[in-house]
Amino acid sequence: MRSRNPGCVTWPRNSFVFRNPAFVASLATVAVAVVTLLVTVTRTWPERFVMVQGILVLASSGHDFERGITVAASIGLLIIARGMARRQRRAWLAAIVLLCGIIAATVRDGDLDLALPALVLLGALFLLHAQFYAATEATRLRSTLGVALTAAIALYAYGLGAIYWHAAARHETVAIGVALARVTLGLVGYDAQSPATRFSHALTVTLAIAAIGTALIVVSWLLRAPLSGVSTDARDRATVRRLVSQAGSDTLAYFALRRDKHYFINTQRSAFLAYRSAGGIALVSGDPIGDRAAFAELVSSFAAHCRRHSWRLAVIGVAPDSRPLWQALGLKTVPVGEEAIVRTAEFSLEGRSIRKVRQSVHRLERLGYRAQVLLADAVSEPLWRDIARVSAAWSGGVPERGFSMALDDMRGVERGDCLFVLGFKATGELAGYLHLAPVPATGDLSLAAMRRLADVPNGFTEWLVCAVIGWGRQQGIERISLNFAAFGGLLRAEDAAPPARLARYALRYADRFFQLERLLQFNAKFYPEWLPRYLAVERYTDIPVASLVLLTLEKLVRWPGPVQRLWLRL
């Protein structure tokens, strides 16, 4: 026995139904809505069942109004089912209201066989009321009501305008009360004109379509999961900085200091998680940081926090030794790539296998290129301008990428302990650089950015990497983390089953957009150790949405303007 959320009854663990009551209730809601909708439509049009026409326009009979209410309420249940699966309280309340509407309409229409399933579901939802506790975007209520009111005014203006324009063309008069009634009933798919005409039919169709579309938008806004925003509290940022400095042993730990993340800190302020929420997904960036003894309680509390905010939990960049921590919560972990780790003491330019890198290093040295290693605190103002110029030339106006394995600000006051490896031409002009973040608890380094001008010789970046490896060996730095190679194991595998070969083909096709294989080949030149990284999700079906959220936060895809605005709305 265990409780799925604080304050709720305990349920047996051996049954999916009892372990996921809200999800099962949402499926039952969909089933009742679909059955009610189909039965209502097919009973009204037994001889000419056309789905779209059937849903939108009800034929003339004494029970059209009740059946219109039933159809509208059924569609409403389909809309809110997703919110119920997320345990949202507002979705539960809306389902109660809509089921009451279906029961009242079907009883009045004499369809007791349709009222019975809705009545059973209504009773079940009342019994499961404690399971629907998740919050929704509280600040959206006023704006959503404003949108609904504006849409209602627009729909009535359209309906009344069409009615009076048609009446004027036919030299007829229509009372305002009659016109308002026709528009109101048309919004639920009921043609109040008797006898019906082509005009009244078309008006009812357009009003019903507009009403359903408006309801879909309004309800989706009203049931939107809360956004996490970013952490701006100075005390939280100080705590996070302290914990990263004291216990940041993972190569991704320093990237938790990005300013576009939110922090979940335990009550003892001894451990934290960095995350952002989008699209109903709370995407955690890397593993917990801080006191390892507090990790289990931290991730458990965060999972409960996600349930209260109707977020699905996903974690990117899970290290192998942290997989059991997330799996204990019931999360599934899938490999998403490998991190290239170079051990400075073992790296050498000797040997035939690394001759191409060695030739690049010698060629750059013969051309007069020189490398300089500087802490960010020691970079002068003119040099900062040169760094900005190289960055602008490299990016070509594209926004800086990164969320989980990159930094957002190289020049921030908190970034003084980062490292630059600067490459200068023989003329003294800055040609490119590497930007590396420290791994505070171990003294290692983690590559954050590589930038160069377009006219530098081939092998320039390899030369810079060799320069920082040699410098790190002299400074006693044991490990340097290079780039993360997404799906590196799959791309490297030569002998694989047909599904794996098909996936590898798809990844190689995507390489023209994301440079997956080219990045893997670059890392492989230095013969690194490959540290696997994982994506943890609650269900495998969450992977597509979590991937879309990750690509968006990492800025690896550039959506068209209208799509970006729609994403922000939804």
Main pleated-sheet profile: 12 strands, mixed
Quaternary state of this entry equals single chain
How many helices in DSSP terms?
A: 20
What's the domain count?
3
Radius of gyration: 30 Å
Q: Span from first to last CA?
A: 37 Å
Q: Indicate the proportion of strand residues.
A: 15-25%
The total strand number stands at 12
Percent in helix: 40-55%
Give the mean pLDDT.
Answer: 79
Low-confidence segments: 1-12, 44-62
- The structural class is alpha+beta
The general outline is elongated
Word description of this protein:
This protein has helices at residues 16-19, 21-44, 51-56, 64-85, 89-109, 112-127, 140-169, 176-186, 198-222, 234-247, 295-308, 323-327, 355-366, 381-395, 460-475, 488-492, 498-514, 516-524, 543-553, 561-569, and strands spanning 262-265, 271-278, 281-285, 289-290, 312-318, 332-343, 370-375, 419-424, 430-439, 444-452, 479-486, 529-537. The protein is an alpha+beta fold and 570 residues long. The protein folds into 3 domains: 16-222, no CATH class; 234-338 and 553-569, Aminopeptidase (3-Layer(aba) Sandwich); 339-530, Aminopeptidase (3-Layer(aba) Sandwich), CATH 3.40.630.30. Strands 1, 2, 3, 4, 5, 6, 7, 8, 9, 10, 11 and 12 form a 12-stranded mixed β-sheet that branches. Helix 13 (355-366) crosses helix 15. Mean pLDDT is 79; it is low at 1-12 and 44-62.
